[in-house]
Specification:
By secondary structure, this protein is of the alpha+beta class. Helices cover 70% and strands 12% of the residues. Among the domains are: 142 residues, Beta-Lactamase; 265 residues, Orthogonal Bundle (Helix Hairpins), CATH 1.10.287.
Length: 650
C-alpha cells in the first residue's frame, strides 16, 4: 500500500522518471524473486504461444488458400466439362442425317430425293433422335430444330423425368428471340451460348424457377445456305445444384463454419447463393449482386481476372472463371468464400489452450515459487542477521584496538620525548666530562711545574699557599662536578628503569594486539635490551664517580696537609716534591677516569640515539597500525551498512 501511495504522489514526468529509476530498490527481495518467477513463466510460454499462433496462422491460411483454390478450380472444371459436353452434343445434332433429310425434303416439295423419304418421316426420325438423347441425358430441357424463318420444326421437351414431343400445332415462332438472330449470324461450326437465365413460356417466367442455358449452332445445306439452327435448352441446375449441395455438405461436415459458394454472371449477379432471395436479381430488376455485398474492389478483381485468391477484411475469397464461349462476353465465376474466424478457429482454440497453460503454469509455479522464495528470504535474513551481529562485534573490537593503538602511539611519543631529553642530558654530561679531563690535564701541568719549582718553594711559599688554595677550590669544583655526574648517572639509571617498564608494557600491549603487534613487540624487546645496557653503563659511571670522589677527598686532605706544610716552612717544602708527585699521579689517574667517563657517555649517547631511532620506528609502526585499524573500521562500517541495506531489501 505504501508503494502505491508513493507512486500516486509522483505527479510530473521528471518525478515519475526518478520513481522508476528507484523502482528496483523499492521492491523487496521477495517481491523481486516473485516478479522474476512470474516473468520467467509467462514470457517463454507467451513466446512459444505467439510463435505457434503465427506459424499456425500462416499454415492454416496457406492450407485454406490451396483448398479453396482447388475447390473453385475443381468446380469450374466440372462446369466447363459439362458445358463442353453440351457443345459437343449440339454440334453433333446439327450434323445428324434427319436434319439434312428435312432440309432436302423441304426443298423437294415434301420428299427427300436421296432416299425418297417423306418430310414427316424425317421429322419423326428427328423427334426420335432428340427423345433418345434426352432420355440418355436428362439434363436437356429442350431440343429443337428451328428453320431459317424462326419456326420450330421439331421440339422435344423434358422435365427431367418425362419426355414430350410437342405436336405441330403447339410449335412457336422464335424469330424475335436474340438467341435465334445471333445464331443465324454465325459461320459453319459456330456456337452460340446464351446467358444463364430463368426459362420463360409465352413471355412469363416459368415457376418453379428453371434456370437454363442455351447452346445453338447454325445449320447449312449442301450448297452452304443457312437453313436454320439446332438449339438445346439445358437445365442449368445441373451445374448450379452442386454449389448448393456443397454449402449444405460444408455445414454438415463442419469443415469450415460459414463457408459459402457463389456462382455469378459477368455482371456480378448471383446465379447461385445460399440465400435464394439474392438470386436472379437481373431477372427481377433488383440490385442483389456481388458489388452490393462486398467492396467494389473485390467485385472488380473477381470479375476481371481468370482466377485468384483474395484476403480482404474478415473473409478469404477464391474464384475461378467459367467461359463457355471465349468469343462471347458472357461468362460465369465460381466463388468460394470462407470467414477467417472459421479458418482460424483452431488458432482461437490454441489461444485458449495457451492461456490455460499459462494460468495452470502460474497456478503450479507461483505457490511453489512463493514457498521457496520465503525459504530463501528467511535464509538470507538469518545470514544478514549473522553478518550484522558479527560486523557490530568486529566494529566494537576494532574501536577498542584503535583506542589501545592510540594509547600506544601516545606512550611511544612520550618515550621518544623522554629519550630525546636523555640524549641531550648525556650530550651535556659528555661535554662536562671533556671539560673535567681538560681541567685535570691542566692540574697535571701545574703539578709538574710545582715539582720543578720545589727549589723555589721556600721563596714563594706565600705564593704557593695561594696556588694551593686555588687548587683546593678547583678540587671542590671537581668534587661538585663529580657529584653532578653521579646525579646524571642516577637519572640515566632511573630512565633506563622507566624505559624498561615502558618496554615491558609495550610488549604486553603488543601481545594483546595479536598479529598487528608482532613488530611492536620486537621493538619493545630491543628497547628493553638497550635500557639494560644503559642501566649497566650508569652503574659503571656511578662506580667511577665514587672513585673520583674518593680521589678528590684524598686531594683535599693532601691540600690541607700542604697548607700545614707551608705554615711549617722548609720542612714541609722538602716533602712537597713527594706530595706533588702523588698529586701528579692522582691527577693523571683522574684524567684517565674522566676519559673513561667521556667514552662511556659517548657510548651511552650512541645507545640512546639507537633507542630514539627504534622509538621512532615504533611510533611509525604504531601510526601505520592505527591507520590500518581505521581502514578496517571503515570497511567494517561499510559491511555493517551493506548488511542493513540487505536487511531492508529482504
Amino acid at each position: 500500500m505504501d508503494f502505491l501511495e508513493e507512486f500516486s504522489s509522483y505527479n510530473s514526468p521528471l518525478m515519475l522518471k526518478q520513481f522508476f529509476r528507484k523502482f528496483p530498490n523499492q521492491l523487496r527481495l521477495q517481491n523481486q524473486i516473485m516478479l522474476l518467477l512470474l516473468l520467467s513463466t509467462i514470457i517463454p510460454v507467451s513466446i512459444v504461444g505467439l510463435y505457434g499462433i503465427s506459424s499456425s496462422t500462416n499454415t492454416l491460411s496457406e492450407v485454406a488458400k490451396q483448398q479453396l483454390e482447388a475447390e473453385s478450380a475443381k468446380e469450374a472444371k466440372n462446369i466447363n466439362a459439362f458445358l463442353d459436353g453440351v457443345s459437343d452434343d449440339v454440334l453433333f445434332l446439327s450434323k445428324i442425317p434427319p436434319i439434312q433429310g428435312i432440309i432436302r425434303a423441304r426443298a423437294g416439295g415434301g420428299v427427300d430425293p436421296q432416299g425418297n423419304s417423306s418430310y414427316d418421316a424425317w421429322i419423326k426420325q428427328l423427334q426420335t433422335t432428340f427423345s433418345a438423347m434426352m432420355e440418355q441425358k436428362p439434363h436437356y430441357m429442350q431440343l429443337r430444330y428451328i428453320d431459317e424463318q424462326g419456326n420450330e420444326l421439331v421440339r422435344v421437351d423434358s422435365d427431367g423425368t418425362n419426355i414430350k414431343v410437342i405436336p405441330k400445332a403447339e410449335l412457336q415462332n422464335k424469330a424475335d428471340r436474340p438467341y435465334f438472330s445471333d445464331t443465324m449470324k454465325l459461320p459453319v461450326g459456330g456456337l452460340y451460348v446464351s446467358p444463364v437465365n430463368l426459362n420463360q413460356e409465352r413471355g412469363q417466367i416459368e415457376r418453379p424457377f428453371k434456370p437454363v442455358i442455351r447452346y445453338a449452332t447454325p445449320i447449312f445445306d449442301s450448297q452452304g445456305q443457312n437453313r436454320g439452327i439446332a438449339i438445346a435448352n439445358v437445365f442449368a441446375n445441373q451445374f448450379i445444384k452442386p454449389f448448393k449441395e456443397d454449402n449444405q455438405q460444408a455445414d454438415d461436415k463442419n469443415k469450415y463454419k460459414g463457408k459459402e459458394n457463389f456462382l455469378v454472371n459477368q455482371q456480378g449477379y448471383y446465379i447461385s447463393h445460399p440465400n435464394p432471395k439474392k438470386e436472379w436479381g437481373f431477372e427481377f430488376g433488383n440490385n442483389e449482386k456481388l458489388e452490393k455485398d462486398y467492396s467494389q474492389e473485390v467485385a472488380k478483381q473477381i470479375l476481371s481476372n481468370q482466377q485468384g485468391f483474395i484476403d480482404k477484411g474478415d473473409y478469404l475469397f477464391s474464384y475461378h472463371k467459367v467461359d463457355p464461349s471465349p468469343k462471347q462476353p458472357e461468362f460465369l465465376v465460381a466463388i468460394y468464400k470462407v470467414p477467417k474466424d472459421s479458418v482460424f478457429a483452431a488458432i482461437n482454440s490454441f489461444k485458449i489452450v495457451a492461456i490455460l497453460i499459462i494460468l495452470v503454469s502460474l497456478a503450479v509455479v507461483l505457490p511453489l515459487g512463493i514457498y521457496r522464495a520465503r525459504q530463501l528470504v528467511n535464509l538470507i535474513k538469518q545470514l544478514v542477521n549473522g553478518i550484522s551481529t558479527s560486523s557490530l562485534q568486529t566494529f566494537s573490537t576494532i574501536e577498542q584496538q584503535e583506542r589501545v593503538a592510540n594509547q600506544q602511539a601516545a606512550s611511544v611519543n612520550e618515550t621518544t620525548t623522554t629519550m630525546d631529553e636523555l640524549k641531550a642530558s648525556c650530550r651535556q654530561s659528555s661535554e662536562q666530562a671533556k671539560a673535567a679531563a681538560v681541567a685535570a690535564q691542566q692540574a697535571l701541568a701545574l703539578a709538574q711545574k710545582g715539582t720543578q719549582a720545589v727549589g723555589e718553594t721556600l721563596e714563594g711559599m706565600f705564593t704557593l699557599e695561594n696556588k694551593v688554595g686555588a687548587i683546593a677550590e678547583q678540587i671542590v669544583n671537581l668534587s661538585e662536578q663529580a657529584s653532578q655526574i653521579a646525579m646524571i648517572s642516577q637519572i640515566v639509571s632511573d630512565l633506563a628503569n622507566q624505559t624498561n617498564m615502558l618496554a615491558l608494557n609495550s610488549s604486553v600491549e603488543a601481545v594483546r594486539a595479536g598479529e598487528y603487534g608482532k613488530g611492536f613487540a620486537v621493538v619493545a624487546n630491543e628497547i628493553r635490551r638497550l635500557s639494560d645496557q644503559s642501566q649497566k653503563s650508569a652503574e659503571k659511571i656511578n662506580l667511577l664517580v665514587s672513585n673520583i670522589q674518593k680521589a678528590i677527598n684524598s686531594t683535599v686532605m693532601v691540600t690541607e696537609e700542604g697548607t700545614k706544610t707551608v705554615k711549617t716552612g722548609v720542612q714541609i717544602a722538602q716533602n712537597t716534591d713527594q706530595a706533588f708527585a702523588g698529586v701528579a699521579k692522582a691527577v693523571n689517574h683522574m684524567v684517565f677516569n674522566n676519559q673513561q667517563i667521556s667514552l662511556n657517555l659517548k657510548q651511552q649517547l650512541d645507545a640512546i640515539q639507537q633507542v630514539v631511532e627504534a622509538m621512532n620506528n615504533i611510533n611509525k609502526g604504531a601510526k601505520e597500525t592505527a591507520t590500518g585499524i581505521s581502514q578496517t573500521r571503515w570497511g567494517t562500517e561499510q559491511l555493517n551498512k551493506a548488511a542493513r541495506t540487505l536487511k531492508q531489501m529482504v
